[in-house]
Amino acid sequence: MRDYSDVLTFEPEHQLNTEPLRIDVLVIKKPAEVVIKKNIGRIFRTHNIVEYKSPDDYLALADFHRGLAYGYLYCAIENITLADLTITFAVSRYPQKVLAYLREQGGKIVEQGSGIYEITGWVMPLQIVIAPELNAEDNLWLKQLRAGLDAQSLERLMKQALRQKSISKFRAYLQVIAQANMATLMEEYQMSAQTLEDFLVESGITAGIEARSEARGEARGEARGKAAIARSMLASDFSLSDIAKFTGLTVAEIERLK
Q1: Does residue 113 share a domain with residue 203?
Q2: Which tens digit of pLDDT belongs to each residue from 194-210?
Q3: What is the CA radius of gyration of the chain?
Protein backbone atom coordinates (compact mmCIF):
# COMPACT_ATOMS: atom_id res chain seq x y z
CA MET A 1 0.00 0.00 0.00
CA ARG A 2 3.02 2.28 -0.37
CA ASP A 3 1.32 4.28 -3.13
CA TYR A 4 -1.26 5.38 -0.54
CA SER A 5 1.05 5.87 2.43
CA ASP A 6 0.42 9.61 2.51
CA VAL A 7 -3.32 9.14 3.08
CA LEU A 8 -3.43 5.94 5.16
CA THR A 9 -2.76 5.47 8.87
CA PHE A 10 -1.47 2.06 9.97
CA GLU A 11 -2.15 0.89 13.51
CA PRO A 12 -0.44 -2.44 14.33
CA GLU A 13 -2.66 -2.62 17.43
CA HIS A 14 -5.82 -0.79 18.43
CA GLN A 15 -7.17 -0.99 21.97
CA LEU A 16 -10.95 -0.78 21.95
CA ASN A 17 -11.46 -0.53 25.68
CA THR A 18 -9.28 0.27 28.70
CA GLU A 19 -11.59 -1.57 31.11
CA PRO A 20 -12.50 -5.26 31.43
CA LEU A 21 -14.76 -6.26 28.57
CA ARG A 22 -18.46 -6.13 29.49
CA ILE A 23 -21.69 -5.09 27.81
CA ASP A 24 -24.09 -2.79 29.64
CA VAL A 25 -27.29 -4.52 28.56
CA LEU A 26 -29.85 -6.90 29.99
CA VAL A 27 -29.38 -10.55 28.98
CA ILE A 28 -32.37 -12.87 29.32
CA LYS A 29 -31.81 -16.62 28.96
CA LYS A 30 -34.53 -19.24 28.61
CA PRO A 31 -34.72 -22.97 27.93
CA ALA A 32 -34.99 -23.63 24.20
CA GLU A 33 -38.26 -25.54 24.56
CA VAL A 34 -40.08 -22.73 26.42
CA VAL A 35 -42.32 -20.54 24.25
CA ILE A 36 -42.91 -16.97 25.48
CA LYS A 37 -46.44 -15.76 24.77
CA LYS A 38 -46.00 -12.27 26.25
CA ASN A 39 -46.06 -9.77 23.37
CA ILE A 40 -42.60 -8.25 23.98
CA GLY A 41 -41.05 -11.71 24.41
CA ARG A 42 -42.55 -13.71 21.55
CA ILE A 43 -39.38 -13.20 19.53
CA PHE A 44 -37.17 -14.63 22.29
CA ARG A 45 -34.88 -17.59 21.68
CA THR A 46 -32.31 -19.17 24.00
CA HIS A 47 -30.23 -15.99 24.51
CA ASN A 48 -31.78 -12.53 24.34
CA ILE A 49 -30.06 -9.16 24.60
CA VAL A 50 -32.11 -6.09 25.55
CA GLU A 51 -30.62 -2.64 24.93
CA TYR A 52 -32.59 0.06 26.77
CA LYS A 53 -32.37 3.76 25.91
CA SER A 54 -33.24 6.17 28.73
CA PRO A 55 -36.38 8.36 28.39
CA ASP A 56 -34.38 11.44 27.39
CA ASP A 57 -32.27 9.55 24.83
CA TYR A 58 -32.96 8.10 21.37
CA LEU A 59 -31.73 5.21 19.24
CA ALA A 60 -29.13 6.60 16.86
CA LEU A 61 -27.63 4.60 14.02
CA ALA A 62 -24.38 4.31 15.98
CA ASP A 63 -26.32 2.85 18.93
CA PHE A 64 -27.93 0.33 16.60
CA HIS A 65 -24.58 -0.80 15.19
CA ARG A 66 -23.16 -1.03 18.71
CA GLY A 67 -26.07 -3.27 19.69
CA LEU A 68 -25.36 -5.56 16.74
CA ALA A 69 -21.69 -5.62 17.77
CA TYR A 70 -22.74 -6.70 21.27
CA GLY A 71 -24.66 -9.54 19.68
CA TYR A 72 -21.74 -10.77 17.60
CA LEU A 73 -19.38 -10.47 20.54
CA TYR A 74 -21.79 -12.32 22.83
CA CYS A 75 -22.06 -15.16 20.31
CA ALA A 76 -18.28 -15.41 20.06
CA ILE A 77 -17.72 -15.47 23.82
CA GLU A 78 -20.64 -17.79 24.65
CA ASN A 79 -19.91 -20.01 21.60
CA ILE A 80 -23.47 -19.90 20.26
CA THR A 81 -24.90 -19.30 16.80
CA LEU A 82 -26.77 -16.21 15.64
CA ALA A 83 -29.87 -18.39 15.34
CA ASP A 84 -29.87 -18.77 19.15
CA LEU A 85 -29.77 -15.01 19.79
CA THR A 86 -32.24 -12.12 19.62
CA ILE A 87 -31.67 -8.40 20.17
CA THR A 88 -34.35 -6.01 21.45
CA PHE A 89 -33.98 -2.24 21.45
CA ALA A 90 -36.38 -0.63 23.95
CA VAL A 91 -36.79 3.09 23.21
CA SER A 92 -39.02 6.06 24.06
CA ARG A 93 -38.83 7.79 20.67
CA TYR A 94 -39.66 6.55 17.18
CA PRO A 95 -36.25 5.70 15.58
CA GLN A 96 -37.02 7.00 12.11
CA LYS A 97 -33.43 6.99 10.79
CA VAL A 98 -32.70 3.49 12.05
CA LEU A 99 -35.88 2.05 10.53
CA ALA A 100 -35.17 3.84 7.24
CA TYR A 101 -31.65 2.39 7.25
CA LEU A 102 -33.00 -1.12 7.88
CA ARG A 103 -35.39 -0.82 4.93
CA GLU A 104 -32.53 0.39 2.71
CA GLN A 105 -30.52 -2.66 3.70
CA GLY A 106 -33.30 -5.05 2.77
CA GLY A 107 -34.88 -5.51 6.18
CA LYS A 108 -38.64 -5.79 6.47
CA ILE A 109 -40.40 -4.00 9.33
CA VAL A 110 -43.38 -5.92 10.69
CA GLU A 111 -45.49 -4.37 13.46
CA GLN A 112 -46.32 -7.17 15.90
CA GLY A 113 -48.88 -5.27 17.94
CA SER A 114 -48.84 -1.71 19.26
CA GLY A 115 -45.29 -0.40 19.63
CA ILE A 116 -43.52 -3.69 18.76
CA TYR A 117 -41.61 -3.67 15.46
CA GLU A 118 -39.92 -6.89 14.35
CA ILE A 119 -37.19 -6.74 11.71
CA THR A 120 -37.13 -9.77 9.44
CA GLY A 121 -34.63 -10.63 6.73
CA TRP A 122 -31.68 -9.71 8.97
CA VAL A 123 -28.71 -11.77 10.12
CA MET A 124 -30.28 -12.23 13.57
CA PRO A 125 -33.81 -11.78 14.97
CA LEU A 126 -34.33 -8.14 15.97
CA GLN A 127 -37.15 -6.08 17.39
CA ILE A 128 -37.61 -2.44 18.38
CA VAL A 129 -40.05 -1.74 21.22
CA ILE A 130 -41.33 1.85 21.41
CA ALA A 131 -42.56 2.31 24.98
CA PRO A 132 -45.12 5.15 24.53
CA GLU A 133 -46.93 3.15 21.82
CA LEU A 134 -47.40 0.04 23.97
CA ASN A 135 -50.78 -0.93 25.40
CA ALA A 136 -50.93 0.08 29.08
CA GLU A 137 -52.95 -2.99 30.02
CA ASP A 138 -50.34 -5.38 28.60
CA ASN A 139 -47.14 -3.44 29.27
CA LEU A 140 -47.70 -0.99 32.13
CA TRP A 141 -44.14 -0.99 33.49
CA LEU A 142 -42.38 -0.53 30.16
CA LYS A 143 -44.91 1.94 28.74
CA GLN A 144 -44.58 4.21 31.78
CA LEU A 145 -40.79 4.08 31.76
CA ARG A 146 -40.55 7.49 30.12
CA ALA A 147 -40.80 11.23 30.61
CA GLY A 148 -44.03 13.22 30.42
CA LEU A 149 -46.10 11.30 32.99
CA ASP A 150 -48.91 13.25 34.61
CA ALA A 151 -49.28 13.36 38.40
CA GLN A 152 -51.98 10.69 38.47
CA SER A 153 -49.98 8.21 36.39
CA LEU A 154 -46.86 8.88 38.41
CA GLU A 155 -48.60 8.35 41.73
CA ARG A 156 -50.30 5.16 40.50
CA LEU A 157 -46.99 3.78 39.26
CA MET A 158 -45.14 4.59 42.47
CA LYS A 159 -47.86 3.00 44.62
CA GLN A 160 -47.93 -0.16 42.52
CA ALA A 161 -44.16 -0.48 42.73
CA LEU A 162 -44.19 0.00 46.49
CA ARG A 163 -46.78 -2.78 46.82
CA GLN A 164 -44.42 -5.31 45.23
CA LYS A 165 -42.95 -7.94 47.54
CA SER A 166 -39.35 -7.17 46.61
CA ILE A 167 -39.10 -3.37 46.38
CA SER A 168 -35.33 -3.58 45.86
CA LYS A 169 -35.95 -4.87 42.33
CA PHE A 170 -37.80 -1.66 41.50
CA ARG A 171 -35.35 0.88 42.91
CA ALA A 172 -33.46 1.53 39.68
CA TYR A 173 -36.80 1.71 37.87
CA LEU A 174 -38.21 4.27 40.31
CA GLN A 175 -35.07 6.37 40.10
CA VAL A 176 -35.30 6.56 36.29
CA ILE A 177 -38.98 7.49 36.52
CA ALA A 178 -38.27 10.22 39.09
CA GLN A 179 -35.39 11.73 37.16
CA ALA A 180 -37.38 11.73 33.90
CA ASN A 181 -40.43 13.33 35.54
CA MET A 182 -38.81 15.66 38.05
CA ALA A 183 -41.16 18.60 37.45
CA THR A 184 -44.27 16.46 37.99
CA LEU A 185 -42.75 14.85 41.06
CA MET A 186 -42.02 18.25 42.59
CA GLU A 187 -45.58 19.44 41.94
CA GLU A 188 -47.09 16.26 43.39
CA TYR A 189 -44.95 16.12 46.51
CA GLN A 190 -44.83 19.61 48.01
CA MET A 191 -43.91 18.45 51.49
CA SER A 192 -41.77 19.33 54.43
CA ALA A 193 -38.09 18.39 54.17
CA GLN A 194 -38.54 15.41 56.51
CA THR A 195 -41.63 14.08 54.72
CA LEU A 196 -39.90 14.43 51.38
CA GLU A 197 -36.87 12.57 52.70
CA ASP A 198 -39.15 9.78 53.93
CA PHE A 199 -40.78 9.49 50.52
CA LEU A 200 -37.47 9.41 48.67
CA VAL A 201 -36.03 6.72 50.91
CA GLU A 202 -39.14 4.55 51.12
CA SER A 203 -39.59 4.55 47.36
CA GLY A 204 -35.95 3.58 46.94
CA ILE A 205 -35.10 6.60 44.81
CA THR A 206 -32.26 7.64 47.08
CA ALA A 207 -29.21 5.71 48.15
CA GLY A 208 -31.09 4.10 51.03
CA ILE A 209 -30.66 3.24 54.65
CA GLU A 210 -27.45 5.19 55.29
CA ALA A 211 -29.09 8.42 54.15
CA ARG A 212 -32.13 7.69 56.28
CA SER A 213 -30.20 7.15 59.52
CA GLU A 214 -28.06 10.19 58.82
CA ALA A 215 -31.14 12.32 58.21
CA ARG A 216 -32.74 11.06 61.42
CA GLY A 217 -29.69 12.15 63.41
CA GLU A 218 -29.35 15.54 61.73
CA ALA A 219 -32.98 16.56 61.43
CA ARG A 220 -32.87 19.01 64.31
CA GLY A 221 -33.44 21.90 62.00
CA GLU A 222 -34.60 22.59 58.49
CA ALA A 223 -31.10 23.28 57.20
CA ARG A 224 -29.80 19.93 58.44
CA GLY A 225 -32.80 18.13 56.97
CA LYS A 226 -32.15 19.71 53.59
CA ALA A 227 -28.48 18.74 53.79
CA ALA A 228 -29.39 15.11 54.49
CA ILE A 229 -31.74 15.02 51.51
CA ALA A 230 -29.10 16.61 49.29
CA ARG A 231 -26.45 14.06 50.33
CA SER A 232 -28.87 11.23 49.68
CA MET A 233 -29.73 12.55 46.23
CA LEU A 234 -26.05 13.12 45.44
CA ALA A 235 -25.39 9.47 46.21
CA SER A 236 -28.09 8.53 43.70
CA ASP A 237 -26.57 10.72 40.94
CA PHE A 238 -29.29 13.36 40.77
CA SER A 239 -28.13 16.51 39.00
CA LEU A 240 -27.13 19.55 41.07
CA SER A 241 -29.92 21.61 39.54
CA ASP A 242 -32.58 19.01 40.42
CA ILE A 243 -31.27 18.75 44.00
CA ALA A 244 -31.36 22.53 44.28
CA LYS A 245 -35.01 22.56 43.15
CA PHE A 246 -35.93 19.88 45.67
CA THR A 247 -34.14 21.30 48.68
CA GLY A 248 -33.93 25.05 48.12
CA LEU A 249 -30.16 24.90 48.62
CA THR A 250 -27.86 26.69 46.21
CA VAL A 251 -25.67 24.77 43.80
CA ALA A 252 -22.60 26.02 45.69
CA GLU A 253 -23.99 24.68 48.98
CA ILE A 254 -24.70 21.32 47.40
CA GLU A 255 -21.22 21.13 45.90
CA ARG A 256 -19.73 21.65 49.36
CA LEU A 257 -21.73 18.63 50.60
CA LYS A 258 -19.85 16.38 48.20
Answers
A1: no
A2: 445 555 665 555 544 34
A3: 23
